[in-house]
Amino acid sequence: MDWARHQADWPHAETSRFVLCKPHKWHVQEAGDGPLILLLHGAGGGTQSFRNLIPLLTPSHRVVAIDLPGQGFTRLGAQARCGLEEVAHDIAALCAQEDWNPTAIIGHSAGAAIAFELAPQLRSAPLVIGINAALSHFKGVAGVLFPLMAKALAMMPGVAGLFTASNGNPRSVQRLIDGTGSKLPSDELRHYGAMISDKGHVNATLQMMAQWELDPLLSRLPRNDQRGLLIAATKDRAVPYTVSRDVAARMRNIDYAELPNLGHLAHEEDAKAVAELILGYLKKNAPDIGA
Predict the structure, then answer these.
(1) 79 burial level (CB within 10 Å; 0-12, 13-18, 19+)
(2) pLDDT per residue over 107-160, tens digit each?
(3) Which CATH number is 3-137+212-285 given?
(4) Which of 193, 212, 214 is nearest to 202 (CA)?
(5) Residue ranges per domain, the chain?
(6) In whole angstroms, what is the distance from residue 220 CA to residue 146 CA?
(7) Which of 195, 211, 222, 241 has its CA at 20 to 30 Å from residue 2's CA atom?
(8) Per-residue b/e over 3-39, b at no fewer than 16 CB within 10 Å?
(9) Range with the lowest mean pLDDT among 10-19, 145-154, 274-283?
């Protein structure tokens, strides 16, 4: 995406900077003081996904939000580095370069899977907080067809252009967001419209879907001592709330919290409710560094 074109209208643009950490040139937003929280958006999203949450965290924490490789304003440096393990490894390198030692990693959807993959690689041993964490496969036939379709689409030239042409209008954006179970004001949808109208962003999202391999992480989770919290919204149509509930039940150090009447973008719909859960968890489980 073209930063010069969107800078004037992008949430928290005044906190943005660009960091070269090979192979990518990362778009980073950084604000606040105190213990560091790292924010990771889901597939197809960007830092704007946390626009409402950031102001609620910065009074007590330093917050760093990044765009994933090729998505938002981060420039993809290698097409083959969009998978779960590769993205986590590259973010770990970015953290080391920038001397970021997060107290907690907050990941939304696929960002939560990245957070679980990333946390053991960081010397700060951060807590992991997932929001509607994408920690399962599609069920049934979809579990077979969707990954194959993603791989096929990512390999086909011109697919990103066809997608942006057919989905960049406001009505299509509204349908996409409504399909997640979330309701957002029309003025907040324009940022999603900008992203799904950009070929580079769509291509990187397709590459991420095509290269996504979740099985190794899922097999490790029950034996994982990672501490954290999974927050799930009961009206999520993208990732059923039972996914987070069941994962938390299998992990001895992971707490679970439910939010009624919210969808997949719960942190955008009701940032205050999500922030209260996050800050309450940090205060209880990391009293020396929490809110």
Answers:
(1) middle
(2) 999 999 999 999 999 999 999 999 999 998 755 433 434 444 444 444 445 444
(3) 3.40.50.1820
(4) 193
(5) 3-137+212-285
(6) 24
(7) 211
(8) eeebeeebbbeebbeeeebebbebbbbbbbebbbbbb
(9) 145-154
